[in-house]
Each structure stands twice: as C-alpha cells, then as structure tokens.
Specification:
5-stranded antiparallel β-sheet; 2 helices; 220 residues; 10-stranded antiparallel β-sheet
Length: 220
C-alpha cells in the first residue's frame, strides 16, 4: 500500500502496538471463529485461464502469464466483481519478483466503481511488503490497523500462501501456515460483507498471484 506520509504511518503503527486505534482490538481473540463451518464447496475465483468475474478499478492492472496474475502499473485494484462475500476463508498464493515489491489483498469493501481508494477507506488490506526500507507496514499487517505478530514470508522468488479467515468482525491471517495476525474490527464504516480484491501498487512492483479460491462459512 502506498503511504502518503511515512512518518504518519509509523506513528500510527506505534499507536496500534501500544494503545490500539479506533476500530481495532488486539485483545485475546474470542472463540467465535470456531463456530463457523464450510457452506458448500469452495469457489474458484481465478483458475489461471480467465479474468471472468473480475474488474479493474484505477490505473494499471494484471496480466495472465503462465496461469498467473502479474501486476503492472498502479495504484489500482483488481476486484472480484461477480459477487460479494460475508463470512469466508480466502486462500491464494503470491510471490514477489524483487525485494522492493509491494501489494496487498483487500477484504470486505463496497463496490469501488473506478476508485481503488474505496477499498482502502472502507475495507481492510492484508499487506504484502517485505522491503526492509520504504513502507514500515510489512507483510501480514492489517494495513493502518494492526501489525503482524511475526514474519513468515519466504525469500524473494518463492511462493507464499495466504489463508485469510473472515468471520463476523474477526480477521485471521495465516502466512505459510503460521498465524501472523488476529484482528477484531469495531469500525462501523467497514461492513460485515463486501468484495475481495488484489492491489497493483506501482509501476515498479511485479507481484504474482495464483490459485485463488474462497470457502464460504456459516454458523447455521
């Protein structure tokens, strides 16, 4: 995610780690997530062959190369416009092609039209950024809300797996089978349902994605 001010972003993250921010809770997670179970078979959002059901908001986009999505340009948002989702587990693989690459996965944002900032301002971003410099918010961060518990990214050029479980107001992030974030939202501006999307951050970032699928969850 691009930051408008690196200093302000750093101060915001320090505030999160020490006292929390409005709309976030870093208290011990509730057991509520375990009450959810799969509802129907998994839904494939990207199978490597087509962008059917997806739309681009903002500049740049993604190309399909060797059954992978490869980002270019930006800042923009490739979002799955075919339908929105409430409670689910989203699984995907991603890899960076250079240490300085930046991207993110957006969750539960409203229809953005052609404005990628709608996802930033009204959804949540799970960050992809292992650049030792630049943006201080690293992979696994709930962007602008909660830093990761630990780092678990593979080296540049190797595939990583995100498992993002969204239930009620709880957002759990596993990276390569390691729990790296457990965040509870209390922000009424971010609703219990929305779209999912991928960020093409800037012209210098070439981030690849593949095997994107979602499992709906229910308590019924």
């Amino acid at each position: 995610m691009r930051v408008r001010s690196a200093l302000l972003a750093m101060l915001a993250m320090l505030a999160v780690m020490s006292t929390g921010v409005a709309g976030a809770s870093q208290a011990a997670p509730s057991a509520g997530s375990a009450a959810y179970r799969p509802c129907g078979p998994p839904i494939t959002l990207f199978d490597g062959s087509s962008l059917d059901g997806w739309s681009q908001a903002g500049p740049g986009g993604f190309d399909i190369v060797d059954r992978k999505l490869v980002s270019h340009g930006g800042m923009g948002l490739l979002w799955y416009s075919d339908r929105s989702f409430a409670d689910y587990e989203l699984r995907l693989q991603w890899r960076v092609t250079a240490e300085t690459n930046n991207s993110g996965v957006f969750l539960r944002f409203p229809d953005p039209g052609d404005d990628p900032w709608v996802a930033v301002d009204h959804g949540y971003e799970v960050q992809i950024n292992d650049n030792p410099g630049g943006d201080p918010q690293k992979t696994g961060t709930i962007y602008n809300f909660q830093p990761p518990l630990r780092q678990a990214s593979n080296p540049v050029g190797e595939w990583n797996t995100y498992r993002l479980r969204v239930t009620g107001q709880r957002y759990e992030v596993w990276l390569n089978d390691v729990l790296v974030n457990d965040f509870t939202s209390t922000d009424p501006a971010r609703g219990p349902e929305g779209f999912v999307g991928l960020q093409n951050h800037d012209p210098d970032s070439r981030v690849e994605f593949r095997d994107i699928r979602i499992q709906l969850l229910t308590t019924n």
